[in-house]
Design goal:
The complex is a heterodimer of chains A (371) and B (396). With 371 residues, chain A is an all-alpha fold. Chain A is 68% helix and 0% strand. The chains are: A mainly alpha (371), B alpha+beta (396).
Chain lengths: 371, 396
Amino acid sequence: MATESQHMIGSHPDLPAPPSEVGVVGWLRHNLFSSASNTLMTIFAIYLVYLLVPPVISWTLVNADWTGDSREACTSGGACWVFINARLGQFIYGFYPVEEIWRINSAFILLVVLMVPMFIDSFRHKAWLGAIILFVFPVISFYLLAGGSFGLKEVETARWGGLSLTLIISIVGIVGSFPIGLLLALGRRSKMPAVSTFCTGFIELWRGVPLITVLFMSSVMFPLFLPEGVNFDKLIRALVGVTLFSAAYMAEVVRGGLQAIPKGQYEGAEALGLTYWKSMSFIILPQALKHVIPGIVGTFIALFKDTTLVSIIGLFDFLGIVQAASTDPNWLGYSVEGYVFCAFVYWVFCFSMSQYSQSVERKLDTGHTKR
Amino acid sequence: MHKEQSAGPPVITTKPWNNPAVRSIVYQAILLIAVVSFGIYIFGNTADNLEKQGIATGFGFLETTAGFGIITHLIEYSEASSYGRAFVVGLLNTLLVAFSGIVAATIIGVIIGIARLSKNWLVSRLAMVYIEIFRNIPLLLQIFFWYFAVLRALPSPKNSVNFMDGIFLNNRGVYFPSSILEDGFSLVIWAVVIAIIGVFFMARWAHKRQERTGQQFHTVYVSIGILIGLPLLAMIITGFPLSWETPVLKGFNFVRGAVIIPEFMALWVSLSIYTASFIAEIVRAGIQAVDHGQTEASYALGLRAGPTLRLVILPQALRVIIPPLSSQYLNLTKNSSLATAIAYPELVSVFTGTVLNQTGQAVEIISITMAVYLSISLAISMFMNWYNARMALVER
């Protein structure tokens, strides 16, 4: 009573917000029940969640069978993860000889070890390390995986498979398509008519057709292109197809970034007396690529998902091997488990790539955006 | 002064290899020579290989009898038809699944995209979960899931799931009553055509009148009335010349009625769901790209929420939405080629699969297939250029 009169006029402290506007209640009122139609939508959404989530959780987790070694272990009516457990080795390594699996493992451990410093901000020699990853690592891992020299037993590519094959195809595709795409994008914007026509035609040709026809082409038509006696491995042909296909998409993404760079930057670089390649690599591309990181990572994600198509031309990538395993008479009827597991793995890879791209985008956002 | 000018610019001595014009010609010549000689090399090898393997060349095979059946065809087709006919059947099946997929994906995508922007927290979260799940799982995996895990796992025709006493769902597909058109139905079709033409002219008249006098006309309600009323009237006059033929279980399968095969269903559902997740993001970005000031200005002019969305926000959002949307449509069309993995008889599956296996003429067949997809994408990109030019912001 008395407290109110003690304040001078105009210096009244703000009253606390009414309890219906803050805290949990306020949040609920604002976000879920602000109007009649909103309340209806909330109720509908809750019903939808109720319909979907409990059965999924009970199937995947609560009622699932986890341990055992044959289908007899699956009795509780939920998911039969025993199937995944029993086939995990095959899902990851394909038909690679069991005693040679250490080679795949060490190649991937090497890659991880090389990649870790790239994520450490204070590491100084990223350019050198990047060059090693791009140029030295592929050679090492090729000799490691294919064998046939340095006293390693040869493992023909027909025995490669599973998640490791998927990763090999995606990594080769990513590493190969980026520089090719970069060159194609620069070529398309070149002032030389022959160069730009060639690049435009190349890009539009690959972008206009589905990947599956490219893969068919690489598996059926490539052998015809080569002189008699010369024969490339099926895997290598698929790799070439995937890489060129992805490079065309990469080129268009990069071109978008190049077009976003104001003309003054090109002119400035020229005025400084930089040659074409110097002005591109020190002035234009660093800015252009920063603009299009989401697009580049989007292309990588698309490439990663598209590697599944190689199963159509008879390579046993991760999806292909899960599909093959689900037709195994011993495990008939457990295809759903296989697909769910497969989907989960792909999802984790794609989702983390997109999250990583968002974090890079934030880190490189040095305040040149328009707004 | 005059003398100095006529002396011309100081002569700069550049070595020819430092002269940009010369360099550019040299580079282009090298590229041309490389491309042409690569082409000749490949052409020579291919001709050699084809001759050695005894594979025929040329497009004569299109006239040859195909000798294989296709489970679903929009036009007359039998084993006695030619390869060319099989090609058309495949192409039409591609277009059918692409068109149905585009319609469904657009509807789902727009709903999810708008839900993503909803002020309702739960609804927008659910939309986000949908988007993040479906766009991060490979399409082929989704097709396999729907086909092998869902549709092939349905009960056999004998134990079909029955909806509304006429629609049967089993592992051979969805069986539903087919309509049989009787005499006089042509009148109904004419009524529909006349109604559409009438609505078109009425809309034009209403628009002109509004520009002249400012008076509005309830175009939407009247159009709906005409579009439903006129055909209905024709139906009544001709005494409902339409009957239904319900599917009947006979032996191991249904006869009569119409069927949608599981291959089509799986492809259609997965294409729609997958592409919808991308369309949703495009719709969301498009609506968010319109400055909020536009909404405020429109409210300040006295427009209500509905007209604001229809007349102010959407036309501007569409400018952002349409280009990526059309490329999604193109993606969907190209992705329909994954049907070959579950043997839905579309272009790639029929032509690049079966016909290629039978004839072995890889070069011709793959070139034709690629040419078809290339022309579809060129047609779409030409439409896009036309649309962009029409919708482009007219600046001062």
